[in-house]
Amino acid sequence: MERTWTKREAVVAFRNPNFNSDKATDVIVYLQGDTCVKCVPRDPTLTLSVGKSVGLRFRIDGPQVLLKKIRVKAADLGADEWTDLRLAMDQSFVPKNLYPPLNDDARELGFSVHNLCVVDAAQAGSPEGVVDAVALGPAGPGPSSSPEGPGPDGVPAREDHSLCRGPPGRLFTQSPPGASPPPTPAGSTLRLVCLALLALHLGLSPLLFSVSTHEAFEFPKLLLLIATCAIVGTLVLSRPTGALGTRSPAEGHRRGWRDPVVVGLAWLAVSGLVSTASSVSVWTSLAGEENSFAGLPTLLAYVVLFSSRAA
Fold first, then answer.
1. Domains of the chain by range and CATH?
2. Higher pLDDT residue, 92 or 99?
3. Which of 33, 41, 143, 154 has the highest count of CB atoms within 10 angstroms of its CB?
């Protein structure tokens, strides 16, 4: 499972290996992650429970990434096809509400899951550091409500997730505070395509010339620049929601307008459009003039070229 933040309480279901099976199979839960210890009043406590209220409760006393390996007996998994795995923090935080604010993230965050996997204990062999799940009693009192109860938003989100086979899932929220969310597979592919096109332009531009045009060097290079930027711009504008990252379009626009380079490029494009529309010779503004190809398409191509760094 890819890195993701939970709320104060999170539930994920995995397929029970003992369902419709005569063989009793134990499982090992691997949990790797961390949390922002400085964002809460005291060292937080995480409760990991599986099936019939067995699991492990431990205190997180530092920002280091922890790794827990917990063996759950077959009898504690129950007889149903799916078994619940619950992560419950005794404290959570909202980055935007901290003083001073950590960032503009308004989500409730609990624990940052780097990796979460459930495997057949027999297949796992004899890994080091495995502890047996124990019966969990109620958590101690504190200013936050018990991790066994529902979170501030009521019943926590839930998602089925099999024994680490099949496509990865998500737990409730996506990215750690202050960090950009990981790109989706579609976004990663689109980013690679755009970078490949820009690299191809960079490699071909010094070598390109043509004896079939009035100007043998600058005009062919300009056509290559405009064609490359037109393709890159079209790909970026037509990308599916979440491509090139998992931010929503609205959030991406808000972050973009805080970048002074993006603001400057936007004003440059607006200036070129206004100048062309109000020009005494619109054709000259569009196509340039003899021995000068600095028309509107060239200007917009440079805007796309420089702004593609933020895509």
1. 4-160 (2.60.120), 185-310 (no CATH)
2. 92
3. 33
